[in-house]
Design goal:
The structure holds two protein chains of two kinds.
Chain A lengths: L2 H7 L7 E12 L2 E7 L11 E7 L5 E7 L9 E6 L7 H7 L5 E8 L13 E6 L3 H13 L6 E7 L8 H8 L5 E7 L16 H7 L8 E7 H14 L6 E6 L5
Parallel strand pairs in A: 7-8, 7-10, 8-9, 10-11
Antiparallel strand pairs in A: 1-2, 1-6, 2-5, 3-4, 3-6
Helix pairs in contact in A: 5-6
Chain B lengths: L26 E2 L20 E6 L2 E7 H5 L4 E8 L4 E12 H7 L9 E6 L4 E5 L9 E6 L2 E2 L9 E3 L12 E7 L6 H4 L18
The chains are: A alpha/beta, B mainly beta.
């Protein structure tokens, strides 16, 4: 088939691009961020994800999806990868890769779990573990766009050391531009901890979230159990079903 | 077509199971991951119904009690999610679309396309040919148990030969439409048809 003919028939087809790792950031003991050079990247909206494809020497390939953690305003793409014990791809991406390594990627994918200034606010972002990644794209975009939409973040991690992007989140909150970040630590809390000390529940959502009357746009991302229970609790508190968007993360079994 | 770069030191974990049952780009899982766009609807069985429409005209409607009384079919199938996981040998029970059309008094489908509609404003488009001839059912049991809400209960469509987003959760209506048009995910860049064996994940694949 002629290339031109192909392009005309499928103008929006997502092509595989060869990307190069520019930088690797140690986020937590089990989480790394890969900063990628992506030639020809068409841009993305905060909240979208990509497919990654690794090819072994004998041609065997594995694909996985990862959320984009970077804002659309910067040229490089950041993916944040959590090590899943016994996983196939995440152990490789969190321990074997080095800057300069190349693999394939295509995207952006997904147009539902997306927030832009045009969608408006207030915003209520609820995250568990590495589920913060697509929400971080929204938060970084919010800063880059100099947007002051009132935004409340409730972020659950196991321990203090497991909080991803903690310094950056704290710096963002210190800008006093309408962002409040509430952490909760489910497993262990450091001495003097003033944040939450249990799993996200109904009363925590009610106190950390915007008023129901303000009709906040809500995005929840994390493991299925957290997303299921948070979404259900938010409905019980009185938030509107059609303003709650969910994305589920984490291991998918063996 | 240029060769993809070799991921230095990446070996991958080859599937233990039968690879001829694994479509391209998929991996096997023994879990049953949950993916959905919003909060899980919890529809009680008293207010549940399933209906068949031709455009805007209702052709048939069953309460839960009536639906449960329709002839039941059990299947063992492999399922393939567009997010890359596949699960082999899953057991489902429900009412085939053939049985539903019979019960609705339709000797043949009125149009070649359908829009499947669910609680939570979810929809997906499927050609009629992919629903009849024993290819699809409205499933109410999974592994012998009532289907859990997070997996689409009380009833979900089961069209195992297409990517699993086509097997709409919380299904309530089969609507015959005259021309094919995109449903919820298809509108958002996912493939209009979604054949896992041709890796039709996204528009244009």
């Amino acid at each position: 088939m002629l290339e031109t003919e192909f392009d005309t028939s499928t103008p929006n087809r997502l092509i595989w691009r060869v990307v190069e790792i520019a930088k690797i950031v140690d986020e937590t003991p089990t989480v790394k961020s890969l900063v990628l050079d992506v030639p020809g990247w068409p841009g993305h909206q905060p909240g979208q994800h990509v497919d990654v494809r690794l090819t072994a020497e004998d041609g065997y390939q594995a694909q996985r999806s990862y959320s984009i953690a970077s804002e659309p305003e910067i040229a490089r793409l950041m993916l944040t990868v959590e090590l899943i014990e016994g996983g196939e791809v995440s152990p490789y991406l969190t321990s074997d890769v080095r800057p300069g390594d190349k693999f394939e990627l295509r995207g952006p994918i997904g147009g539902y779990f997306v927030w832009t200034v045009a969608i408006g606010g207030p915003l209520f972002l609820v995250a568990g573990g590495s589920g913060i990644a697509p929400l971080m794209s929204m938060l970084r975009y919010r800063v880059a766009a100099k947007c002051t939409t009132p935004t409340l973040v409730l972020y659950s991690s196991r321990t203090y050391e497991d909080i991803i992007y903690r310094e950056e989140l704290d710096q963002m909150a210190a800008r006093n531009d309408g962002l409040t970040v509430t952490y909760t630590l489910t497993r262990r809390q450091p001495p003097g901890w003033t944040g939450g000390a249990r799993r996200i529940d109904r009363s925590m959502l009610a106190s950390a979230g915007p008023s129901v009357i303000a009709r906040p746009k809500i995005f929840i991302c994390g493991p299925t159990s957290l997303v299921e229970s948070a979404a259900q609790s938010l409905l019980e508190v009185g938030y509107e079903r059609n303003l709650i968007k969910t994305e589920r993360f984490g291991p998918t079994g063996a | 077509m240029t060769q993809p770069p070799i991921a230095r030191g990446f070996r991958g974990r080859r599937p233990d199971g039968p690879t001829d049952r694994l479509p391209p780009g998929q991996y096997l899982t023994s879990g049953f991951p949950v993916l959905s766009a919003g909060p899980t609807p919890h529809t009680d069985l008293e207010s549940w119904s399933f209906s068949v429409y031709d455009g805007d005209i209702a052709l048939a409607d069953w309460s839960w009690f009536e639906f449960e009384a329709l002839p039941q079919t059990s299947v063992k199938v492999d399922i393939h999610c567009v997010t890359k996981w596949s699960k082999l040998d899953t057991h489902w029970q429900g009412v085939t679309i053939d049985t539903l059309l019979d019960a609705a008094g339709l000797s043949e489908p009125p149009t070649p396309f359908t829009m499947i509609r669910s609680d939570g404003d979810y929809s997906t488009n499927i050609p009629v040919q992919d629903l009849i001839g024993g290819k699809a059912m409205v499933a109410t049991r999974y592994e012998g148990e009532p289907l859990a809400p997070e997996h689409g209960g009380p009833a979900r469509l089961l069209v195992p030969h297409l990517y699993f987003w086509k097997s709409a959760k919380w299904v309530r209506r089969l609507q015959f439409i005259t021309s094919d048009k995109p449903g919820f995910w298809e509108e958002l860049g996912y493939h209009i048809y979604g054949d896992p064996w041709r890796e039709q994940r996204y528009a244009g694949d």
